[in-house]
Amino acid sequence: MGNGFLFIIIGLALGIIVAFVLSRLMINQFKKEEAQKADNLLTQAAEKAKSMELEARSKALKILQDAENENRARRIELAREDERLGKRRAELDNRVERIEQREQQLNKRQSALDRRASEVEKMYAQQLAELQRVSELPMEEARRLVLEEAEKEARGDMARIIRQIEAEARAEGDKRARELIADAIQRVASDHVAQVSSSVVPLPNEEMKGRIVGRNGRNIRAFEQAAGVDVIVDDTPEAVTISCFDPVRREVARRALERLILDGRIHPAHIEKILNEEQREVEKDIAESGEQAAFDAGVAGLHPEITKMLGRLKYRTSYGQNQLAHAVEVAKLSSLLAAELGANVEVAKAAGLLHDLGKAMDHNTDGTHAMLGAEFAKRYGVNPRVVNAIASHHHEVEQESVEAVIAEAADAISGARPGARREDLEQYIKRLRALEDIANSHSGVSQSYAIQAGREVRIIVRPEEIDDLAAARLARDIARKIEETMQYPGQIKVTVIRETRATDYAK
To answer: If residue 14 lies in a helix (H) or strand (E), which one and from where to where?
Structure first.
């Protein structure tokens, strides 16, 4: 028992010793592991610090490189700017030098001009003394003559300038009137027909010409005598021409001949019958046309004889414009203008419609168409103000009312609007030729051309004979001669062209 207890104590002691040893071993092992971990952490920290240092160095190097590149670019830009400034300074120096040289040249020229001016003054004094000696006129008398001539020319130029200024002022002052006129033309403008003094009648065949002429010409003589026209049978294929200054007789003859051709019975007795029938038909058509024109113009209460005479204008033309259509157009224009201006619209309309009434009878009666129309209208009880407007629309009598002025203005508008009338070609060519003849009559003129429908004449002169001053004088002389010898509307522009050419050949 005693030995067992001892063994237990020894065992406990050994156990304690072993446990202590094991604990020490474990502590040492733990310390080693902690030391190893610490070493690893230190190693990792060192590696991380080294990598961060490398990264910082690379960033710093990049910043340095960027700064160097920027500085290099700025240095290049500064070098270029310095080069440009140097060139600019050199150019400015050259320009200043050229300006100084030019100033020296101008000073030399000015001195030369001063010397030349003094020489010219001396020559002028010598020439003046010589002129006085030759002309035996005192200085004051010669000066008076020159001033009178200059005054005459200046007055002519001044009168032309005054006319131009008046025209411009009138155009500016009439702005409202032009607007009214333009509006009226756009609203009532009508077509026009060609001006004719003959009518062409088509034939079915050439044999019909022989039947119209008849044996020994009896049919054509009977037709011409009964109708009061000329029948022209020429080489025109399948057509004959009826000519007469009276448009009504010409229309009657045209209709009758067309009926005779369709009927086929062409002999003197039948010709007279057909002519009488067509005469009645044309008179009926004239009356209907007059009534229709009065209706279209809005003029009521006219005497039947007035409308019948008005209808005759259907077969009358003036410069290609049908006179009945013209009368209706003038009536409408007069109505519009009177309404805008506050005048009597009915009187203005009637005056516009009847203003050319005398043209329906002026080939049969002596007198102007304005006075004939006024007398005819007065005979059938037309308003006295309308009668005065008819008589005064060409200023043969004094205008007594604003409606007369309106009718005259509407008549001018209708005749002058584009497309209403056409100028006779022969008269147009004569006017252009007269302009060129006036220009060619002056010495030194090489060629001349009338252009712009006769509103401008261009003159080409020989430069060896006409200098610049003479060209200006030539333009004024030609313009003055045109004013003195020709009649024309508006103004004609005179342009003198002087051209000098130098030619050489490279061999």
So the answer is: helix 2-135
Between CA 377 and CA 355 the distance in angstroms is 10
Lowest-confidence segment of 164-168, 367-371, 412-416, 425-429 by average pLDDT: 425-429
Residues in CB range of 355: below 8 A, 6 or more apart: 327, 330, 370, 373, 389, 390, 393, 407, 411
Q: Within a 10 A sphere around the Cβ of 468, how many other Cβ atoms?
A: 10
How many residues does the structure list for the chain? 507
Round to whole Å and give the CA distance between 192 and 219. 36
Rg (CA), the chain: 56
Longest dimension (CA), the chain: 202
Considering only 99-103, 127-131, 172-176, 438-442, which range has the smallest mean pLDDT?
Answer: 172-176
Average pLDDT, the chain: 81
What value, to the nearest 5°, has the Cα angle with vertex 464 and ends 461 and 466? 50
Q: Residue 319's pLDDT is what?
A: 63
DSSP 256-311: HHHHHHHH---SHHHHHHHHHHHHHHHHHHHHHHHHHHHHHHT-----HHHHHHHH
Q: Which of 433, 493, 442 is nearest to 471 (CA)?
A: 442
Q: Cα(268)–Cα(214) distance, rounded to whole angstroms?
A: 10
Element (H, E) at 253: helix 247-263
Asked if residues 275 and 323 have their Cβ atoms less than 8 Å apart, the reply is: no
Q: What is the pLDDT of residues 175-219, one digit of tens each?
A: 666 565 555 555 454 444 443 556 788 888 888 888 888 888 888
Report pLDDT for 184.
53
Distance (Å, rounded) from C-alpha 9 to C-alpha 128? 172
pLDDT top residue among 495 and 170: 495
- Of all helices (H) and strands (E), which one includes residue 388? helix 384-392
Q: What is the pLDDT of residues 16-66, one digit of tens each?
A: 888 888 888 888 888 888 888 888 888 888 888 888 888 888 888 899 898
Question: Which two tokens mark 116?
Answer: 């030349």
What single-letter amino acid sits at 267?
H
Distances (CA, A) of 141 to 126, 132, 147, 471, 501: 18, 10, 10, 30, 44
So what's the pLDDT on residue 320?
A: 64
Nearest to 220 by CA among 243, 237, 196, 190: 243
Which are the contacts of 287, defined by CB distance < 8 A and separation ≥ 6?
A: 304, 307, 308, 311
Confidence of residue 496 (pLDDT cuts 50, 70, 90): very high
As a whole number of angstroms, the distance between CA 131 and CA 13 comes to: 170
Phi, psi of 454, deg, nearest 5: 80, 10
Count the alpha carbons within 13 Å of 459 in the hemisphere toward its beta carbon.
29
Please, which residues have CB within 8 angstroms of residue 368's CB and are 6 or more apart in sequence? 358, 362, 394, 396
